Every structure is written in structure tokens, then in C-alpha cells.
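Example record used in the benchmark description.
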Amino acid sequence: QFLMANKLDTAMWISRLFTVYCSALFVLPLLGLHEAASFYQRALLANALTSALRLHQRLPHFQLSRAFLAQALLEDSCHYLLYSLIFVNSYPVTMSIFPVLLFSLLHAATYTKKVLDARSSNTLPFLRNLLEKLSANQQNILKFIACNEIFLMPATVFMLFSGQGSLLQPFIYYRFLTLRYSSRRNPYCRTLFTELRIVVEHLIMKPSCPVFVRRLCLSSISFISRLAPTVA
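Model output (C-alpha cells):
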């Protein structure tokens, strides 16, 4: 009754569980490397479906207008719909599957707890314990996801020069990264950028750091700072 009363949430729960399943079979290629590549695409397509359903839930009344598009781009679900489309037809990159896997795992765990609560407060205590541990580490997981989002930017450039990526991919991914940086719901991308800058500045200001390395890092920090969008 609980599942039928929340059909859209249940559909997203199932698609997230399928995303976790496909992502796990890509990261751990138990069925062979050829099958792993197909699971990579399935995971991203399932994530795109979940993101589209979530976006429909947040913005149920679609309009073909600039205002609606601007509103949609503020939603994290729209960001990860774009993310899935960026990588679904690209060369499989393990780094790119971790945000999809971990976000799906976190959201699926949250809804699984609701399903267990609807059934009984004492249902499957072992599973409940695992879900509680996952929830307790949510902040660390979100930071790890943000770290993946940031370091995928140079990875897309490297893929371009190695012949495994398209010319447009780094530019489209840069747009995705600016959306994540400006996210209202998830500040971890901004937080990680700040923390990385503090760490790098601390290291290069040490006397043992060569002058040319210091200058290179400072110019890189200045360049990246200019690219960062303004956050309200």
C-alpha cells in the first residue's frame, strides 16, 4: 500500500537500485570486460531516468520557455540528467560512475528506510543497521562525490588529447561543473574548491617549494577563480 500510494517515489527507488546494481557490475567486472562497458551505459541511462523523474516531481508543469529552463537548471536533478548525457556515449571512465553510484545508493537507502518503517519498526534489523551506518557517513560520501566532480574536469581534457573523448565534452562538462558550484541544495562542490585552494596555497608557500612551481600554482588558482561563477 505504501509503494502504490507513492508511485513516482517508488519508480525512482527501483531505478536507483538498478543504477547501483549496474554501477557495481561495471566497477567489479564479474561478468567480463565487454559486459562491464554495457553496464556502464545502463547505469548512466538509469540515472538519467531517475533524474528526469525527479525533475518532473520538482517541476511538474513543463513549459517551453527561457524562464522554465532557467528554473530547471537550478535543480540538482537537472545537473545529473546533463551529467548522464555527457558520459553515456563516451569511453567508460571509472571516475565518472562513482557520483552516479553513490548518489543512487544514498537516495535508495533513505527510501528503503521509509519502506521498512511502513512495514514494521523491527523489520530486518541487520539491513537497518547498514542503512544507519551509510547515513552516518553521508557527509564524507558527499565530499567524495564533489571531489570526483572536480577532478573529472581535467580528466575530460586528458581524454580529449588521448583520443578517447570528444571536442565538446570538456566544454559541456565545464558547464555542468559551474552548475554544481552554484547548487543551492548541495554546497559540497564549492566547499571542496575552497579546501583544495587552501591546501595548495599552504603547500606552495613553504620555503622548500620551488619558485616556478609556486608561480605556476598561483597563476592556475587565479585562472580557475576567474572561471568560477558568481554565487548569490
